User: Fold these one by one.
Assistant:
Number 1:
Amino acid sequence: MSDLDEFKATYFDECSELLLELEEQFSAIQEGDRSPDRLNAVFRAIHSIKGGGGAFGFDALVRFAHSFETLLDYVRDGRVELGEDVVVLCIRSVDIVADFVAAARNGETLAADYGAVEKAQFDALSRGDAVELAQPEDGEEAMDEFDIDFTPVVVNLDAAPSTVQAAGGATVWTIRFTPFATLYERANDPLLLFRELGLLGTMTVTPELAKMPLLADFDPFGVYCSWTIELVSDRASEEAIREVFEFVDGDCAISIERSEAAPLAMDEEMPSFAALAEEAKAERKFVPTGEPDDLMAELEPAFAAPAVRAQEAAPVAPSSTTSEAAEETAGRPIGMSSIRVDLDKVDRVVNMVGELVITQSMLTQQMDDAIRDRYQELVRGIEVLAQTTRGLQDAVMAIRAQPVKSVFSRMPRLVRELAAKTGKKIKLDTIGEATEIDKTVIEQLSDPLTHMVRNSADHGIESPEKRLAAGKPEMGTIRLSAEQAGGNILIVVEDDGAGINRDRVLQIARERGVVGPDQQLTDEQIDNLIFAPGFSTASEVSDISGRGVGMDVVLSNIKKIGGSVHVRSWTGKGTRMTLRLPLTLAVLDVMLVKVAGSPYVIPLSSIVETIQNARADFGHMPSGGKVLQVRGDYVQVVDLAQRFGLASTQSEDSRFVVLCEAEGNSKIALVVDDIIGQQQVVIKSLEENFERIDGIAGGTILGDGNVALIVDVQSLKSTNAHQNAA
Amino acid sequence: MRVLTVDDSRTILAMLHHTLTNAGFEVLQAENGQVGLDVLGREDVDVVITDINMPVMDGIEFIKQVRSTGKHQSLPILILTTETSQDKRDQGRAAGGTGWIVKPFDPEKLISVINKVVH
């Protein structure tokens, strides 16, 4: 990654945060909070997006942001009133800025007139009372200012000065320079100016010491000295000389004159600076050598007094205060102290810590009472080890953890767009955005969450008329919340809409044969039908959620990352969908089972229940296939030993059925020889280390060093269905 | 030589950091004026580069505060500005800013401006 790419990555990261900030601030502003803090925050956010955009030459973005920023600046100092319509314009424009940023990130170009309407509105609003505005900026001018090839005004050493004489000739400049006290107050220093001038040519500096008082009257803060500088140069222009004094403009009196003739013939060798200094020393005449220390020694006390003495003579804060301040700030990092680390490296640490946690829990498990009694020191050591390991695990997980904010932040815009498309009024509340989850989980969360919010806006919230008729506020609310509950994160999408229309759901389910004609379902079962594959309750396919993607995809995506979805609905009052997600994907909670003498693990998240074979209610299909009857449902049975081509050594009755849930609420019953217990494992990819095996999701190394294979419930279910269909 | 950079934009901080470290400077960073003051309270630096628009404490206030401590009266402070913000630059100067750097900056020019104000 080149430096520029790296800066761009930082910039885009920062833009995401700033856009989120804008989103939040404007939503508070919309609620009526017009405090200066908010206005400053939105101004700064746009300003930063523009600033970085300028550095990378994202012209279209910069132009738009500039108009936006100008308006915000005027709003901030009260020149433009922040009415409802302006807030709406701003919120819409945040989306446009987001689009510009996205386009810049993806290297795309938006239509030339994209955002032109809003930009024109900004410009018009900013011009609103143009008479009073100091310098209303013309759009075109603004553009020019932000062209990337814009050159900052600093000393240009290679400038071809207009006053330079014909080739070979040099010009003598006489510069009279009298600093004011303010020059020193701003930490400017004549010495540095001379050094800068010295880069333009050869010079002689003569101090005017006439005003220098007697030592008794000397004020260390006084300004007594002025200088006359003779600069001999073949390349200096008046402009270049003025630029040297750019920072002290107003803090000094300066005159620049060009002498008619060069005092030195150019073919004669110029004396070096050092030589001049030597000469000056001998004559007690001042010539800067560019060596500040020498200079100071030379000129003490008269010359250096204002600049340097001031520093030393200045009142110094009492040491006690200083040390207190130091104590207060001690331990705090200096600014933003962070490093960028390759994610692979973090993954390796996470992986090893996972192994450590498992080894540690194995050690604890293997300690029986006899060992505890005999080796108390060892036991204590292992207890400490357990604590430390737990702490290490938390610390490592925290490195990869990200606030859910990064996903939640995309939702306000989605809701706005949906509301606009459907003509509904919808407000989005978000709670617990700071809740952190592992990066990999976050990455998998975006699509399902988008779909759930879309579902709530499209199917849940009613039209304003319907809501009013039902005695509800016109504006519907979708609430998005996140909280940590033990080793899980709960993400809840809740709306105050109409709730699931159970009659309609049931009707569609019966039409499609998902539910038998006489089958009676509880309300909860009906609600869960929305997760059935290809199921959609929208009576008309809208362009919002009718994309052939249903809630079944949400469910399967969430299951893939070891999570679960739960839906609950109240007729006329609303729907609540709860996502339960693991904090991390690196460590998996599993049930350890035995098949033909070998250990296998089944992810705990997919297990519904376990039943002893002897108690299981098996039946046979006409084809000869075995089925398990569970509360009125018939579930296909897969004997893992048979499936993997092994021979079970157990008697049929002593074996166990593990009832698992696969995608779309469909179930499968796995027959195993024995159930050993629950534990955590670190997942190892088989594909990377060996090769892909059908029906196996990966491998893991157990505490005793044995390798166990992880059963892939989903693929067993689909191959089984396939076999049955064949 | 040590430089303290004060800016709430990570992008600008990163670019300053890169340019300055490449030029052999040691770089300290702060994300706003308050943090900048904290850093100056315990670290010695040779020059400060500060943005104007920042949360918590903006650049103008930061410069005023720095100048109000005797210890830092001669510390050069460069103000990061855009070409359009002449009034901000003037405010920064009035508060005690030594000079300015125009954004977006060119690495060579950044260094030359620093050399213009630092011994």
Number 2:
Amino acid sequence: MEMFLSITVGVLFAAGLYCLMLHSVVRLALGLVLLGSATNLLLFTVNGLQRGFAPLVPEGEQALSAPFADPVPQAFILTAIVINFGLLALLLVLVHRAAQETGTDDTRALRTELKDSEQ
Amino acid sequence: MTSATLLSLPIILCLGAAAAGQLIPSRAWPRRWLALMTMMAVTVVGAMLLVTVRRDGVQAAQMGGWAAPFGITLVADLLSALLVLVSGVMGLTVVSYSAATLPASREAGAYYPLVLVLVGGVCGAFLTGDLFNLFVWIEVMLGASFVLLALEARQEQLEASIKYMSLSLMGSVVLLCAVGLLYGVAGTLNLADLSVVIPDSDQPRLLTAVSMFFLVAFALKAGAFPLFFWLPASYHTPPAAVTTLFSALLTKVGVYALARIFTLVFTRDTQLTSTLLLVIGGLTMVTGVLGAVAQYDMRRLLSFHIISQIGYLIAALGLLTRGALTALIAFLLHYIFAKSALFLVSGATARVTRTYDLHQMGNLYRTQPLLAALFFVPALSLAGVPPFSGFFAKLAVIQAALRAENWAIAGTAVVVGLLTLFSMMKIWREAFWKAPPENQPQEPSRPLSLGDGVLGPCMAMTTFMVVLGVGAEPLMELADAAAGQLLDPGEYVQAVMGGRP
């Protein structure tokens, strides 16, 4: 399972970075979605996968005993998903608005203004 | 007040007021006053926190009563407390400047709540005691900054915020990877716990690799070489008040985080990180100032100066001696005030001349004598001319470099200081001294007075600078004490972890 997830993480990172390098704002947003998912999976995988061991303290004991699924990474990932989701919604609104203003989704069009001021 | 109240109040005040700001009627004045009052309260709480920390040592509080390292820890040492106080002061300055410069329609909208969220996020980042919450607060702060940048939705602002946002999100991805990997290696993210666990870890190489992830993520947030290009691409587009807030607080969180993790967490392989930080710092200084020399847009020029000053901070961190950290803290304070003063003045000149282009300005020295004085002081201070605060801050950095016998950094710092002076003189010559361009219809402009409210905040910043310059000794003492706490994390760990090792 770890192997499968590691490969998935690698593929997602590669796909995300590839999307970032295309000259399109929409693909840029998509690339960031992929990178976000890759990161979440990475967090999940690195911190150890455990199947069927809920992090519950057994009755009569004070602490968790050895094989248990660590709930902390899952809490991280949940938080990260929420943040990522919010920021991506914002980015999509921005992309949409910018496409309305400039009439293009080409990232190279975003650089014109810089060139003007350098001249 | 208990330390738990004191530590959580800056965050609660800001976020609570932001929420309340959205509920109250959408008119300019109630939102403005709410924001002003909140910032005042944050400043007062920051000052009380600083006094408490100075008197009783590092303050820590466990939220929800879960003991560290399991719960959420808020902790303030002198550096955090000082920065929270400065955030409050800067918030107050920017809100009062916004009230004077922004149109009522903008003030009535979400502007003030966003400013409050941003300051709340910054305070949270300064006060948090674990790395995951640091990530969360950085995202809160960035989220607010994205919207503030794009709020007017002019074309160049949309373009700038897409660039800024996609690069920030990249940085966040790297930071989150770093946090996840570190948790996988060390099994904890509490900063104090990490500083205990990491020296005994049996995977030093893996930890070094993880520390590089953190270095990249925070260097991007701080705007260090070679990851600074988002900064001059975006900082010149929003109104001057917003740029001031960004320049005062956003990149500083990156520097603060770097200082925190490389003095508290990754202290094992200091040879590597120090060398890297020194090289990054030196290159940041040089590229920033060279970028600035080439610019003729006032705000773009000032944005490049943010980068070059960040270089001083990172180089000081790389030296990692007590003197260097003292210099870092003093420089950080000086630089927040000096840079903000310059951005505020740039907004005021734009109000008079209706442009940021230095070619189209001129003669302001005669028409706006007070404004000229208010530019002159922070410009000299930024360049490091005595008796202003910049002189002592820069001198401290150079002295620390000389003591560490790092001639390259010392030399770079001196040369960059001269180039800074040169580019400040360029603004002075173009905007204030030369005759106005002929093709421009010269309408007789009334000198700005304090009654306009534009110059008040500039004046306050300039006063701070003179006070910090003339009264440098208590500041240096405070910075020295804060540097001592950074170098010897025992007190920090003790405060967070309580009696347990």
